[in-house]
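seq:
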Amino acid sequence: MGSSHQEAIKQIHLLMEEVDEPLEHTFWNMHQGYPTETLVRFLKARDWNVSKAHKMLVDCLQWRIQSEIDNILMKPIIPIDLYRAVRDSQLLGLSGYSKEGLPVIAVGVGLSTFDKASVNYYVQSHIQMNEYRDRVVLPSATQKHGRYIGTCIKILDMTGLKLSALNQIKLMTVISTIDDLNYPEKTETYYIVNAPYIFSACWKVVKPLLQERTRKKIQVLRGCGRDELLKVMDYASLPHFCRKEGSGSSRHYGNGLAHNCFSLDHAFHQELYNYIKQQAVLREPVSPIKQGSFHVRFPEPDPEEANIAKTIESEFQKFENQNGLAKSLNDLRVNGA
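struct:
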């Protein structure tokens, strides 16, 4: 790290010494004993501009206070059937760890439907995953390996990606904006697998719009990406949707829900849900746990994020129009015959 970066870290440390107690408290919940590493994430997200990084961090801390993010791991989504419905339609889970000890987060982009609960429940669930990762999973990995581990790997499964995904762009933009503004630089690498033609066509248009820092993190793998991913993680940590290629793979992969890292029956989700219920009881041991979603203030997407969302929507629309025209021509041929 160069001297200019060291100076930037020093400056932002000094600025953070001036924040009031509520901001300082929620900042501790963020950094979990690693303030410098957290400050570096915000500096990277703003290209090492100290004033912009400081503003981004203060805005994040104020968002955490206003939205009571420090308490979100005390707010289980109940009843359990509702949470199971969320898990079945918001495909997200931890499948294991890389060879370097980084958590492997699997995301079912193509098959997530987000149609079993309100938007607030999906946002609540996503933020709970983020907070559990940052407050429990990453500190445990750091302790286990004896060195700081503050990032994860994400594997995005595009299986089943369809034009109907247009209906989900608004919600996905909300979630993406929350991550970009409040959990920056938490992902080391994005691996995209099982990409259909519609993704490949869209990616060609979207890729140039991304910042170089983001583009470098994204790797589009062939097929389910099994062989490439085995270079960075063991077979046991592969998400279930990456275990299709190669002889003998079916012998290692069962069909039970416990093997599906998206399912509530998976060990990770059982641990997460039990943790949240325990935290709720510790906070209010006498009062019954209340139902209802945890409302979070949705931040406005920055212009770049909004532009990318519009581009994706436009490309999907073009694809839909082309498909519609092809179907019409095919119908004419069939009827003409």
